[in-house]
Each structure stands twice: as structure tokens, then as C-alpha cells.
Amino acid sequence: MRKNAFWIVYVMLLLGQLLISNYFTFTPYITLSILPVMVLCISTSVSTPATMIIAFLTGLAVDWLSEGVLGLNAIALVPVAYIRKPVIQFIFGNSLSARKEDFTVQSNGQLSVMVAILAVQAVFLAIYIWVDGAGMRPFWFNVARFFASLAAGLLVSVFTLTPLASDNRR
User: Fold this and answer.
1) Torsion of CA 53, 85, 71, 136, to 10 degrees
2) d(Cα 20, Cα 7) in Å, to the nearest integer?
3) pTM, whole model, 2 decimals?
4) Vertex 126: Cα angle to 137 and 37 (nearest 5)
5) Are 154 and 114 in contact (CB under 8 A)?
6) Which stretches of 29-71 are DSSP H helices?
7) Could you count the other beta carbons within 10 Å of the beta carbon of residue 12?
8) Closest Cα to residue 38, out of 23, 29, 51, 20?
9) What is the pLDDT of residues 67-104, one digit of tens each?
10) What residues contact residue 82 under an 8 Å CB cut-off, 6+ apart?
11) DSSP single-letter state for residue 137
């Protein structure tokens, strides 16, 4: 039953991302997305190909229902799903994957979790901004957008992490 609760929270956060994408565009310098942390928090018992499919469908839903550029979030989110298990193994250790255990903030510490979020946000934003710019925007604009979006995304993702990766979901 707890696994179903995770997916309900996942869908609710997907709706939250749709609201963010539709109504909270403050500046062209910030791309605010909680999608990478949502994919990072998918259970380690889910295989990488299945996670990539979930990430693709999640990104496609956001593209279709909010931003209008079909495939932009999907193309940036699939690599996040691909590197999810290596990031978890590198930052939290091999024991989590071996035991098919999910990481939590309480058991792994705030700093380690923030490093993991930073890694997946950086991959997502690098691909998203590169594809979105498509050679039309100046390099320094894209660099400024990347770092501003990374800082804002890290801040929002830390608050998003509470319902996704807490000890209560076991």
C-alpha cells in the first residue's frame, strides 16, 4: 500500500509541476523544474528501462499540458532516469541498491541528498537549456540561465523531497 502512496504523491507533484510551468514563469533566466527530483526518488527496485519510460511519459505530459514544445522536458528527463542508479550508488553507496532500499533524508543526511539533487538537476538543466536554446541564444545567456535555474531548482527540490523520500513511505 505504501508504494501506491508514493505514486499518488508523484502524480500530485506532476500536477504541481504543471502549475509551475504554466503560471510561475518569472524571468527567462530561470527554468523551474521539480521533475529531476521526482525521478530520483523513484524506488531503486524499479529497473532503469522502466524508470526511463516513466521519465519519458512524465516529461511528455508536462510538455503536452503546459510548455508547448513537445519533447523538451522528455528529452532532458530521460538521461536523468538513466543516471539515477549510478548517482545513488556513488553518493549513497552500493548498499542501498544491493538491498533494494530507497534512500531517505533521515538515513542518508541532508548534505548527501542535496548533492544528489544537484547532480540530477545539473544534468536535466544542461540538456534542457542546450536543446531549448538550439543555437539561437548567446552562450553567456545560457550559462546565466543554467546557474540561476540550478539554484532555484535546488531550493524548490529540497522542499519537494519531503513527501517523496521520507521514512514514512515504507
Assistant:
1) -170
2) 20
3) 0.89
4) 135
5) yes
6) 35-40, 48-62
7) 11
8) 51
9) 778 889 999 999 999 999 999 889 888 766 666 667 77
10) 48, 52
11) S
C-alpha cell at 116: 544528489
Q: Which amino acid is at 157?
A: S
Mean pLDDT of the chain: 86
Q: Give the tens place of pLDDT for each residue, 47-57.
A: 999 999 999 99
CA–CA distance, 40 with 116 (Å, rounded to integer): 8
Neighbours of 45 (CB within 10 A): 12
> Which residue from 37, 61, 8, 22 is spatially nearest to 153, judged by alpha carbons?
37
Q: What is the pLDDT of residues 128-164, one digit of tens each?
A: 999 988 778 888 899 999 999 999 999 999 888 877 7
For residue 90 the three cell numbers come to: 556513488
The more confidently predicted of residues 149 and 107 is 149
- Distance separating alpha carbons of residues 27 and 52, to the nearest angstrom: 30
Q: Which of 84, 93, 95 is nearest to 54 (CA)?
A: 84
Cβ burial, residue 138 (10 Å; 0-12/13-18/19+): exposed
In percent, how much of the chain has pLDDT > 90? Answer: 49
Spell out the CATH class of 2-169.
Answer: mainly alpha
